[in-house]
């Protein structure tokens, strides 16, 4: 059995699309564990409209997506778990392809690709599993919600998702899995089986405060690893710098951009970011939300 775990908060208007895509799966041995993170809209009523015993609904107080994914795993009955966001959907062969990979190769973790759609439903790009670079031991993977099937036992042994992280949950999880002496056996499906819908509603990727706070904790947790991988260190500092500007932490932003420039002193982009962060009349316009 595969347990699909979906944290959700006030997405009643989007939830039906996700549930319907799960109901259309060609692979039938699944359960959908919906962890309601304290919704105040009609989420429960939407779920109750679906008369399928494989759909399980749990309502709890608001505590964030990471906690809901972990608690969903605790009640899940499947040997494997996969985390699907409530505003996305999946293609009909999603679980079938993933389960075939497990059965054929005995994989502990299987990744697949995903396709992005804009708010008008237009496809704007496909991302497939790829070499993630030296910081990730050059493993080939795709680590985004919906694209990661993992053996429940391994997920729980590594401690699940870090509930103290405001963002970067999947990246942090993968790093901890790879740092474990008993590294999981990873395989990939080079097909876009997940549909990621971009919209103006609440998402972590739109929450600049969450990105900033998540970056702070990520730096503290993985300082040595980042120092040993200049490209990733540069990229994370730059992302944190932009979120610092967008949350009005201007001095911190300049400090982050300066650190990035020290890593890549010949980078024109890094130099320009630092200069712009010091210009009050320009920085907010340049990095508008």
From TrEMBL:
Residue intervals of the Glycosyltransferase 2-like domain: 3-126
CDD domains, sorted: Glyco_tranf_GTA_type
A matching Pfam family: Glycos_transf_2
Signal sequence interval, chain numbering: none
Protein name, UniProt field: Glycosyltransferase family 2 protein
Organism of origin: Salinimicrobium oceani
């Amino acid at each position: 059995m595969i347990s699909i775990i979906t944290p959700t908060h006030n997405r009643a208007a989007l939830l039906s699309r996700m549930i319907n895509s799960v109901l259309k799966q060609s692979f039938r041995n699944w359960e959908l564990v919906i962890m309601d993170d304290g919704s105040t809209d009609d989420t429960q009523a939407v779920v109750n409209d679906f008369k399928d015993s494989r759909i399980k609904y749990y309502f709890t107080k608001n505590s964030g997506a990471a906690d809901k994914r972990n608690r969903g795993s605790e009640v899940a009955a499947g040997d494997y778990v996969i985390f699907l966001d409530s505003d996305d959907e999946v293609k009909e062969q999603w679980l079938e392809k993933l389960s075939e990979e497990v059965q054929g190769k005995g994989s502990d973790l299987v990744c697949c690709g995903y396709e992005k759609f804009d708010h008008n439903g237009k496809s704007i790009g496909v991302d497939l599993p790829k070499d993630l670079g030296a910081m990730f031991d050059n493993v080939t993977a795709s680590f985004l919600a919906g694209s990661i099937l993992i053996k429940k036992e391994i997920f729980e042994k590594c401690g699940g998702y870090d509930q103290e992280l405001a963002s970067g949950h999947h990246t942090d999880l993968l790093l901890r899995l790879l740092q474990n002496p008993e590294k999981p056996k990873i395989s990939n499906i080079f097909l876009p089986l997940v549909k990621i819908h971009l919209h103006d509603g609440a998402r972590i990727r739109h929450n600049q405060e969450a990105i900033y706070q998540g970056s702070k904790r990520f730096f503290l947790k993985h300082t040595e690893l980042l120092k040993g991988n200049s490209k990733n260190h540069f990229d994370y500092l730059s992302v944190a710098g932009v979120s610092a500007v967008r949350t009005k932490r201007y001095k911190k932003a300049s400090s982050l951009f300066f650190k990035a420039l020290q890593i890549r002193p010949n980078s024109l982009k890094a130099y320009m970011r630092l200069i712009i962060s010091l210009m009050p009349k320009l920085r907010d316009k340049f990095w508008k939300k």
